[in-house]
What does this fold into?
Amino acid sequence: MVKAEDTAIDEIVVVLLSGGIDSTTAATMESQDPSKGVYFLTKKTDLPEFERALEIGQVLKDAYSNVAGHYVLSFDLENAIRSQAENKEPEIGRRSFDSLNDRTLERSMGRLGDRASKTDAIPSGYPGFRDEMFALIGLDLCERIVLSYFQKDPSKKLAGRVVLGTTGEDMRNFNDIRPEIYTDHINSIAALKESPRLTGKPLQTYLPFADMSKTDVIKLGMKVNAPLDLTWSCYSKGPNPCSVTNPKPQNYIEWCDQCHWRSDAFSRLGIADPALRLYKR
It folds into this structure.
């Protein structure tokens, strides 16, 4: 924890850090505010983004003294939903929760904004209730830290905030993560919990990039010197992103959506993706 006697801290911030561009930019911005006690929360996966998230967290912790810790969520969602009686996944099972790596699930063939109009198929990468679950776990962690300060010193009344790197483009592709469907309801629950009652300060989720494109976020990340060169966006298990493994795709589905969106965003800015220097072509 940031030292409780540090009177400069007025808010506890938990950033859901995935290792991608958006969450890395958000984490960097929050870390640069000395009035915030900053923590990172990352879900453990077998994808390269997990190791990248740990590395990014360490870089920010070394750079900013108010970064207090990095928590890892070790929760196996796929195994958690297996049938207890048959010890197997439900019919939709892994294709819903791990469709990112399942080539048998038809990928969206459209560009940004097209996926939301498709009503006759499960969209590629659809996370189900995963995002709501992570946001709630982030709020639980945030409130625990806020209450630990209050318990040690009742005069230490801190606000609590969970930061998600969801962008406007994400919302165009997944209707169910728009604030009025997603975070607004979660915040209405958070407002009734103990830390707001005891401290008189808000406990809430926050979407700083809700009105921004991926290109906007990259520009902001470069402005705040976020370690974008360490980020990973690809849905594949590596060791290289599919945009590097197959640099000249013959059709859209040879790259995952994230590689398309990332490449398009850097192309619109007219600059090279700094992460590509890590890979051998």
